[in-house]
Amino acid sequence: MAWALKLPLTDEVIESGLVQDFDASLSGIGQELGAGAYSMSDVLALPIFKQEESNLPPDSDNKILPFQYVLCAATSPAVKLHDETLTYLNQGQSYEIRMLDNRKIGELPEITSKMVKSIIRVVFHDRRLQYTEHQQLEGWRWNRPGDRILDLDIPMSVGIIDPRANPTQLNTVEFLWDPSKRTSVFIQVHCISTEFTMRKHGGEKGVPFRIQIDTFKENENEEYTEHLHSASCQVKVFKPKGADRKQKTDREKMEKRAPQEKEKYQPSYETTILTECSPWPEITYVNNSPSPGFNSTHNSFPVAEGNGSPNHQPEPVVPVADNLLPNATPQDAQQWLLRNRFSPFCRLFTNFSGADLLKLTREDVIQICGPADGIRLFNALKGRVVRPRLTIYVCQESQQTREQHVKHENGDAAANTFFVYHAIYLEELTSAELTEKIAQLFNISPRQINQIFKQGPTGIHVLVSDEMIQNFQDEVCFVLDTMKDDTNDGYHIILK
User: Fold this and answer.
1) Is the pTM of this model over 0.85?
2) Is the pLDDT assigned to residue 491 strictly greater than 50?
């Protein structure tokens, strides 16, 4: 075997070779990206067009996405190549989102012929607003009582099952769907982008939102908690027909640009494809674990001896009043601001004691913090509690409470007999909200409650509707009875 001895190369030779290699690479790029030899997807795949930050885990680059979501709304032509697409929507208009099964044969066999659960959210795109999302949404709820940020257009939707909209989450909807069947969900966004800008001179630029979809499969307990896929897109919402005018304006601006300038911008696509992202952090509002009371053979919840309260069921968690005291030190005041989500203003009130903050007038706080946060801070300083629209009191009926009620009616009840009632506070005045509150009271899943009835004249059972709840008298009292549903494991609730 012959060995060739390579002599060390001089610096000039090495430099000359590098220059030749670099020139060759440049000429190759010119050939590969000729006028008829590339597609837009190839250009966007180049490293220089990738975003510097990514929300995806590093090992997801080569992963085949199981689902694809397509928003049927055109993207803006005034977006540069390296930027994320931007889509304009009209307030209150129904837009279709196609839920597409993107799996290969044999992929994710555990969801074959099974349902998956998707949650759609409208969230803030800007990081600054994400930090204050809760108070921003609460301020919107205050200004638009009874309205929702996101709704489903159920009559136009196809293939969705059990659609739900939690009354406490105005920007979220959820539903079940079968990936093997055609599924299209129509959504309506009722807030506009300028509602979350500081209104000073008028004509402010609206903030962008994100539409995000998270999809889950069932776990061994038949709960939809195992994450499968998440994707999102950037949108701006305008008043009715405002999105069409904005799209036309962007198109006219692009037509006036020079051809060299147009090459720096994306074309307008007829639909918007949601791109993969990290799942939205889930917040548990209601414990969805099954309750022992519903799995028993008795037609009632477990009850305690001697009264109508649930057995070993904890009371709903009620926020403890966190009022700022006048004798609070500046350090205590800083902790109070942090606990009550006023962290952006901690530096402004660094040297303020509790007494200093409590002396501020409503006008002072609004001038310092702005209208939305100022009103919220003033109400928090004064310890104001928003009165619910409707309060009802409920007591669970058991065999013992029935006997005591009969004795009470006959005048035979002991003088020390009393019944424990629980308060339920309603804001939306809907049957769905009442179901959620009763389920939360007894620490069960709302899906285990099939229907709620009110006992009417001659003992008839009247289905409780939104209109009926809206006509309930404030602070009315009910005794809750349960009736087993023969068709499934659920229960009917009867208000007596």
Assistant:
1) no
2) yes
